Amino acid sequence: MKLTIVDYGAGNVTSVERALQRLGVESRRTASPQCISEAGVLLLPGVGHYAALVRALDEQKMRAPLIDAINRGVPFLGICLGLQILYQSSEEAPQLRGLNLLPGKVQALPPQVKLPHMGWNQLVTKRESRLLAGIGAGAYFYFAHSYAALDSNGSVAATCSHGTEFAAVVEKQNICAVQFHPEKSGDAGAHLLQNFLRIAG
Amino acid sequence: MSLAHRIIPCLDTDGERVVKGVKFAGLRDAGDPVALATRYNDEGADELIVLDIAASRDRRPTFLETIRRVAAQLAIPLTAGGGIRSLEDGRAVVRAGADKVTVNTAAVERPELISELSQEFGAQAVVLAIDAKRAGTYWDVMVRGGRESTSLDAIAWAKRGAAFGAGEILLTSVDRDGTQIGFDTALTAAISKAVSVPVIASGGAKLPEHFVEVFTKGAADAALAASIFHDGVQPIRRLKEFLATNGVEVRLPC
After folding, report:
1. What pLDDT is recorded for position A153?
2. pLDDT, tens digit, for every residue of B189-220?
3. Domain containing A21: what range?
4. Residue B254's pLDDT is what?
5. What is the mean pLDDT of chain A?
6. Are B242 and B7 spatial neighbours (Cβ–Cβ below 8 Å)?
C-alpha cells in the first residue's frame, strides 16, 4: 500500500513517515495537486497555525483535488490541524474557510485551563470506532493544540476534555481524523495508525 | 480523567555525547544519546529533551545529526535546543526532527525571536527555557548557561515570554540543579500560577517524593531530570508507579 502525505511545509512530517515505516508501510510526501488527485490513501498531518495550512492549500492549489479525492471515497486520515481543517472554519483565523466536509466550527479551548492543551490525555468513546479497535479504554494519546472542534455530532467517535469536551476521533465513511498525534503517542498511537491502514485496505 | 503529568528525561549533550555536571559546571561523559533515547522511549518517558550545552557554531552540524539520530528512535515528542539564536536556527532543529524548540539567552536579548518561531511553528512548538536563581526577594533570570545575571524577575519574564508566544516554560532552578535535594517548589509554583501555559520543572530531583512534591505543591505540569535517569537511580517506570499510588495522574506504560 502506498500512502500519500500532504506536506504543506509546516511541522514534522518526518515523524509521521517514521511511524509508518515502523509499521512496514512506505509513504511519499507531496504538495502537488496532481499527486493528491492520484493518491490511493491520503494523510494530512498538520501543526502550527490554521491560517498557514489554509493558505498553503489554496496557494498550491491543493484544496480542490483534496476535496475531490475525499468525496470520491479515498481513505483519508487527518491529524491535529488535519482534523480541524475538515470543518467549516476556525476561530484561529475566522476570515478563512476550511474544507467544509463536516458541519460546525473549530473554536478556542476555554482560557480557564492551561493552554496549549499539551501532553498525554485519555478519550471517552462515543460510539463504536474502527480507529480505536483493540485499544484499551484507558489509553493515553499525545495532544498539542489550543483550538478544537467542540463537536459531538454523529461523526465523532471519541472525545477528550480539557476545559471543555471536544472531538478527538472523527470517523465518517472514508474520513478519519484525530486531534492528537498518533505518530508521537507511543504504542497506542502505532495501534491506531495500524487500524487506519487496515480501514484503508 | 485529565491531562497526565509528564516525566521528561533530558539529554545534555556537547553536541554529540551526553554530558553531565553540577550547577552547570564540571562536565563528564554520561553516554550515547541514541542509546539513552531508545531506552527512555521504551521505559515510558512522556517526552524527551535534547540540549546542546556547548552550543558552539562549528559543532552545530554534529548536534543536528544527533537530533536526527535521536528522533529516528522515538515514538514520543522530542524537544531540542541550546544556542538557538535565530529563526533559521529553529528551522534547522525542526527540520532535523524536533517537535519543539527551546530558546533561552537569545530570547532574553531579543524576545521577538519567540514570536518569530511561534508564528512559523505554532506556540505548541516554542519552549521558553528560564534558568532562575534566588536573589533576595525575587528570582533572577540567568543566561549563558546559568552563569550570567540579567537582574530580570523570572516571574515577569515568564509572563512576557508567554505573551510573545511561548507555548511552554522549561523552568530550571540554578540553585537546585545537580544538588539532588529536590525541586524548588516555591519557584515552580510561583511561575506555574503566574502563567497560563504549561510549566516543566527542572533542577534538584532525586527521590520519587521530589516528583510528587513538584506536581502537588509546585503545581508543575511536567518534571524533568537527567542524571538520575541516565544512571538508573530512578527507573522511569517505577517512578511513575510511585506517582500513581500517590494520587498523581500519570500515563503508565503497558
Report:
1. 76
2. 999 999 999 999 999 999 999 999 999 999 99
3. 2-200
4. 63
5. 95
6. no
The pLDDT, as a whole number, for residue B253 is: 72
Using a CB-CB distance cutoff of 8 angstroms, which residues of chain A are in contact with residue B168?
116, 118
- Which pTM was predicted? 0.95
Give the helix/strand (H/E) hosting A200: helix A186-200
B162: cell is 508567554
The question of ipTM being above 0.90 is answered as: yes
Domains (range + CATH), chain B:
6-245 (3.20.20.70)
CATH number, domain at A91? 3.40.50.880
Kindly list the residues of chain A whose beta carbon comes within 8 Å of any beta carbon in chain B. 10-12, 14-15, 18-19, 22, 47-49, 111, 114-122, 124, 136, 140, 142, 144-146, 161-162, 181, 183-187, 189-190
Give the closest-approach CA distance of A77 to chain B in angstroms: 18
Burial class (CB in 10 A: 0-12, 13-18, 19+), B119: middle
Please state, in angstroms and rounded to a whole number, the distance separating the CA atoms of residues B132 and A139: 36
Q: What is the mean pLDDT of residues A17-29?
A: 94
Distance from CA of B1 to the nearest CA of A (A): 7
Give SS3 for A68.
helix
In chain A, which ranges are E strands? Answer: 2-6, 26-30, 42-46, 76-80, 89-90, 105-108, 117-122, 124-125, 140-145, 147-149, 156-161, 165-172, 175-178
* Closest listed residue to residue A105, CA positions, set A160, A174, A153: A153
Rg (CA), chain A: 15
